[in-house]
Amino acid sequence: MSEKATVEISEIHWMMDMFQSVDVGLVVLDRDYKIQVWNGFMENHSGLLPYEVRDKVLFDAFPMLDKEWLLQKIDPVFVLKNRAFTIWEQHAHIFKFKNYRPITSVAPFMYQNATFIPLTNITGDVTHLCIIIYDVTDVAISKIELQEANNELQRLSQTDRLTNLNNRGYWEECLQKEFLRQRRNHGVSSLLIFDIDHFKKVNDAYGHAGGDEAILHLAKILKKNLRETDIGGRYGGEEYGVILTETTAKEAYIFAERLRIMVEESVVSYNEFEFQFTISLGIAEFTGELNSHQNWIEVTDSALYKAKMSGRNKVEIYTQPQLDE
Q1: CA 243 to CA 251: how far, in whole Å?
Q2: CATH number of the structural domain spanning residue 37
Q3: Is the pLDDT of residue 291 over 90?
Q4: Per-position DSSP letters for 16-54, written without gaps between them
Q5: 43 and 74 part of one domain
Q6: Which residues form the GGDEF domain (predicted)?
């Protein structure tokens, strides 16, 4: 055997050795989607030897593949002779392999990026396609955890720590958006503001911790009554606000009265004490005469003030003052 032939055989041997040991998946398909090449990465993660899958149609060998999606990636590569790519954010994986990396063991499967490469013969025709599978589980998990951490930070920035309701800043942002939406669409929504009657007496009798228990107790009752479309928040101290979307003042009154009765009949247990309290509530339906969301709060607050001045433990609906003739 000539020296040149020996070198060529050695080069082929090295290439095959690299092909089998490289830390990416390599799969070659023919035009009928039959598997022609299956490297060591694919063997190790699938548990299938090359001879077990060779000449089998990919979708028969792996019926759990997302066939429709994968064909949308493969077929244009055969036809257009262009490479295609996919990343885990678009599609988490092609082959659902288990994740064995100890650092990212929290991942139930391997996240994958992939490249689809057309393979041509000596006449330039695409006869085969190579799929390169990259294990990007570490990158994916890091990004997912970072996103989850950012989401949690955002949630915390919008949440009142004591009650787990929306805090005032975020709740007012929601109210401003609802105000603008109603002014644009000429729909209907109502604003409800309420607070604990004689809250100072609660603090004086049971201390600030007892007052916090009353605030938390009220928040729990409120959350039980909120609909999915309602936006509740702690406006400040013992005061709460609820944006009742697609709700008239009369409908809001029914909601508020139910809430008032539930609070009046409930009992707060704090240490060895048990006590009760009541709330007063004000309602204002959106009208075109309101010039800002702050104005909406002001008129609702005036209804609450009226409820306070007329005896407390009641609901009042804001009515537009009549000008003297």
Answers
A1: 13
A2: 3.30.450.20
A3: yes
A4: HHHHHHSSSEEEEEETT-BEEEE-HHHHHHH---HHHHT
A5: yes
A6: 187-320
| pLDDT tens sequence across 19-38 | 666 789 999 999 999 999 99
pLDDT at 100 over 50: yes
37-72 residue pLDDT tens: 999 999 999 999 999 999 999 999 999 999 999 999
Question: Strands 126-135 and 25-30, how do they pair?
Answer: antiparallel
Domain that holds residue 257: 158-317
For residue 325, the one-letter residue type is E
Instruction: Give the residue, 1 or 210, on which the prediction is more confident.
Output: 210
Among 144, 174, 209, identify where a domain stops. Answer: 144
Backbone angles phi, psi at 259, to 5 degrees: -65, -45
pLDDT value of position 173: 94
Phi then psi for residue 6, to 5 deg, are: -65, -45
Distance of CA 146 to the CA centre of its chain: 14
Selection from 250, 262, 254, 259 nearest residue 319 by Cα = 250
Specify whether 129 is located in the same domain as 277: no
Residue 90 to residues 80, 113, 131, 180, Cα–Cα distance (Å): 22, 9, 17, 35
Which tokens go with 95? Answer: 């082959």
